[in-house]
Every structure is written in structure tokens, then in C-alpha cells.
Amino acid sequence: MANEDYGASQIQILEGLEAVRKRPGMYIGSTSEKGLHHLVYEIVDNAVDEALGGYCDCIEVEIEKGDIIRVVDDGRGIPVDIHPKAGIPAVEVVFTILHAGGKFGGGGYKVSGGLHGVGASVVNALSQWLEVTIYMDGKIYSQRYERGKVVKPLTIIGECDQEKHGTMVEFKPDEKIFETLEFSYDTLRTRLRETAFLTKNLKIILRDTREEEIKEETFHYEGGIKEFVSYLNKSSSALYGDIIYCEGTVNNVYVEVAFQHNNTYSENVYSFVNNIITPEGGTHLVGFKNAITKTFNEYARNMKFLKDSEQNLMGEDIREGMTAIISIKVEEPQFEGQTKQKLGNSEARGAVDSIVSEQLTYYLEQNPAVGKIICEKSVVSMRARIAARKARDLTRRKTALDGMGLPGKLADCSDKNPENCEIYIVEGDSAGGSAKTARSRETQAILPLRGKILNVEKARLDRIYGNAEIKAMITAFGTGINEDFDITKLRYGKIIIMTDADVDGAHIATLLLTFIYRFMPELIKTGHVYLATPPLYKIEKNKNVWYAYSDEELNSILTEIGRDSSNKIQRYKGLGEMDAEQLWDTTMDPKKRILKRVNMDEDSKSELDLTFTTLMGDEVEPRREFIEANAKYANYMEYQG
Length: 641
Hints:
Blueprint: E1 12-13, H1 25-28, H2 33-52, E2 58-64, E3 68-73, H3 90-96, E4 100-101, H4 119-125, E5 127-136, E6 139-146, E7 149-159, E8 166-173, H5 185-198, E9 203-208, E10 215-220, H6 225-232, E11 244-250, E12 253-261, E13 268-273, E14 276-277, H7 283-302, H8 315-318, E15 322-330, H9 346-366, H10 368-402, E16 422-427, H11 429-438, E17 444-449, H12 461-465, H13 468-477, E18 494-498, H14 503-519, H15 521-525, E19 529-532, E20 537-541, E21 544-548, H16 551-561, E22 568-571, H17 580-588, E23 594-597, H18 605-616, H19 620-630, E24 637-640
Parallel strand pairs: 2-9, 13-15, 16-17, 16-18, 18-19
Antiparallel strand pairs: 1-4, 2-3, 3-8, 5-6, 5-8, 6-7, 9-10, 11-12, 12-15, 13-14, 19-23, 20-21, 20-22, 23-24
């Protein structure tokens, strides 16, 4: 594909750059670690746009010493000729003028992930410095910017092979803008792996040269989203060997869909538009769900998997245990809001629906054994859903009749304003008793649980609704679960999981987090879920008392007070070993305690789902590998108060 159709005239200008440094959150979401990594995604996405157009085969991303980022692609190279309207080189337009790029109908790109064209200019504006190097037509061009302004004009700095082409962007984020400048290799790896899955045959190399031991991984998937589904299903058992794949183009919408069912009960369906994840779905996801529900109901009726007396399968029945990727490419994506959370293009719905319906119908005719497995699982799911609804309705009726809205074991707080209230979920009667005595009765509620709760990763809704401990939590929180969930009915501003600081305690906390994540994820998204941090050690010396929350803190205290025989050190094995006063002082007093807020990044939802399946599913080997690799990490944010 020749370069002549991609020049300065394709770069269109919409408005200037002034506001970015004043209000960076408007353009990259935040100035936290998430916003910092967003800078890399913007530059990489520009290179991916070249790949989507068929011009780029390889992208290299390197984290250099000093947390400098270098992104190199073998695309066409950003145009260097003079822009007819701006009177400056086109590359300078791209990096210094907001809403400028080849994505506004100028003919530069047919398909692009960038909606607003703010990527390169925003990265430039929020960087201490940025250098762009372009290889084109046997020449090497370079330009340097500092905090968004040109400090070295576009210059030819050398010659290269006539066949060499592409762009290299190096930048250092501005310490005046960001809360942290430290890039996470794991965060970038998750995003780049996903991007490679979604862009068949594109090779992405991630390299970290900050330490002596260089880390490097290559992501290259000829199978595209089929390999993505296989990767996401690696911690569960697939119910059939095939990954069902549908592909086609309708009304200029290119559609790819891949899915496979596994032996779990969770639905893990991810939708993308031009390689951008759409956490809230949109028209393409609606089209997929319609096609799946309609096609499987017709098939189940025709093959007599459904009795004449039985109602139709619902979409959720068919999607139980399904891992699916819906990826579409469309010329002019219309998203709701700049965050690109939800697709609005009406033509996407019909395109996905027609392609999946037609190709899935054909697949089921050719593969009746797979059709039987899916239909039988769906029918069992339907019957469990009906049983769960009856159990839920019965619970509601009983609650209405006996007037007892809250579980008997709950020690509620007297303040009824959710913003002031918090609930401690505590395992065991002993710890529960201490917590009830220690608490501030006005604002702190205590819900003791007996033993380990049900592992919801291995249970259907009917069993979940029948579990006393889970029912107690659902009732106490007040929000309901799944389609009944209503965050406005939340009774506590903070839900605090308080378990022993040992392996059993960590397992109980993981079971509780799995339940909340699968059935009330909004509680985590909106920052209502926390982990309490009980101390590991109590140190006494000369009637003075210290508490240590880690081995490092213990060593620090001992170094300060002196290591001698008068030190009395107690290693807490559980919350029950603390009396009420100690529990208050160390773990429950808002002025002293350390809470860890549980966070989730929707951009990495597929990895999060995989983590829960790995930790709580049936497959032992993936769980062992995960624990060995991640035992030294903690992904919570400390929150004082």
C-alpha cells in the first residue's frame, strides 16, 4: 500500500491544546497510576491503527531507566510534509494541536480506535519531554518537545534504508502532573497482551530495561480472538474442544466473535470496538446476545432438549460458563462519553446479530454433539434459575410477613445514614464477640459468619440463595444481587472484611471477595469494599506496648527499643486472641486503623475474571502457578481512616 494517500492533507485540525495541562483528568481519566499508563496506551493505539490499516506488523514498547517510555512501530511513519492549513509539518500538528489526526474523515484511517484524536497531543502536553523520530523515504526526521512546546524543530538527522519506515516516540511523563512516575510492567503486559489477541498477526514486544535483569515478552497470536478465549479458559475445563468462531462484514461493520463454554457458572463476555474494550457493552453486545438466545432456543426446540411445557431459555441460561469475545471494527464508532464505555452505532447490532445467527446455526447443524452439550447445560441452568427465583421470592415474602428485615446475628449500628456507617464481616463467634464489644455502636455494625462461606465460583444461583451466610450478607447490605442490585439501597458506606492474618483468613477473605465481585461488582467499582489489617505482633517492654503489622515493622520496632530479653513478643494467630480493647486499638479505631480499599480496573476485567477462576476454580495446576508467581505482591490501596 503506497504512502501517497496518507499525507498532510489528511491531518485535520479541530481545536487547540491549552486546557490539557490544567485539567489532565478530562483527557486521561486521572493523574494516578492509571492515568500514567494511559499515556502509553495512547501512543500504542496510534501504532495499532496503522496495523488495523494493514501498514504495521510489529510494535516494540520499552520501559527504560528513569521510567522513560519508548514505542517503535514499522508503520508508514507520521507525515512530515507541511500541513496546508496550519503551515507547519503535519507531525507537529499531530503532537501539538488537540483534536488533530488522521481520524476525522480526512482519509488517513478507515478504522481507528481513537475517537477524539487527542492521543499524541495529550501525551506530549503531559510529558516533561517527548521526542519523535520518523523513518521515511530514506531519511530520518526528528523533533523534540518539552511540556507540549516545540524546542527542536523538525530536522533531518540522518539517512536510512529506503525500505525502512515507521515511527519512534520517546517520552518522560511530567512529575508536576502525575502522582507517580513508576510504570508497572504487569499492567502494561496485561494491556499489550490483550491488544495482540485482538489484532491477529500483529507482534507486540514489551521490554523492561530498568533493572540489570532485563524482562522481555513477545505477544503474537495468529489465531487472534480464538487464542484469547483459549487463554481465558486455561484455568477451567472446557466442555467441548472447539472454540466457536464467527466472522464477516455487514454494512461496513467487520465482526469477529469467538466463544466456548467451560465447567464454571460465571459468564465472562467481553466486547471490543476497534480494539477498545467497552465495559458497558453497547449495540454490538446486544446483537450478540440476541443471536445467541434466538439461535439456541430454536435449536433446543427443534432437537427436543426443551419440553413443550417448558419456557424458553433466557440468555443468562445459555451464557452460563461461557467465555466470549465480541470484536468489531467500524469506520466511525459512536461512543457514549469520552471514556468509550458503551457503543451506540445502530448498524453494529444488526451486523453482529446476522453474522452470529447465520454462522452459529450452520455450526450447530454440523456439530450436534457440541449443540447437545450446550443445550443440556443451559436447560439445567434454567431449572436452577427458576428454583433460585422461588427461593428468593419466598425469602421476600417471609421478610414481609414476619417484619424481620435483618439477619438475627447482625449487631446493627444506631446511625441510619449510610455515609456514616460501616459493617464488619467477621469470621467466627469468638472474633465476632470481641468485635461487638469493641465497636462504636453508633456507626459500626458487626456481622459474624460461621466458617468458610460457599465458593460461588463452583455453585449455581439456587445453592447461593439457599446458603445462610450469603443470605445474611445480602440482607444486611440491602442492595440485592444480580438484576435486583440497587446501590441506592446500600446500608453502609464501608463494607470491611475482617479475617485472621493467616492462610485460612486469606482464603475466607478471597471467598467473600469472589462473592462480591461476581454478584455485586458495583460495590467494588464505587470503592465501598475494604480489608481490615489486624496486627501480626504485639510487643511489650517495660509496660509499654507496640503493635507490628508486618515482619519489617517488627524489626523496625525492635531496632528502636533494643533487642534484649525483656522484650515480650506475641505472634497473633487470630482475631480471637485479642480482647475487645486491643481489637479496637489496632484494627477498628478509625483514627488508628489501616484499611485496604479493594480496587478493580475495568480495562483489565478479563485478567481479573481469570484470576478469580484460577484461585477459586477446580484446576489445581494453574492455581499453584499463580500463587507461586504472585505471593509477594499485594494489589490493594492503603486507606487511613
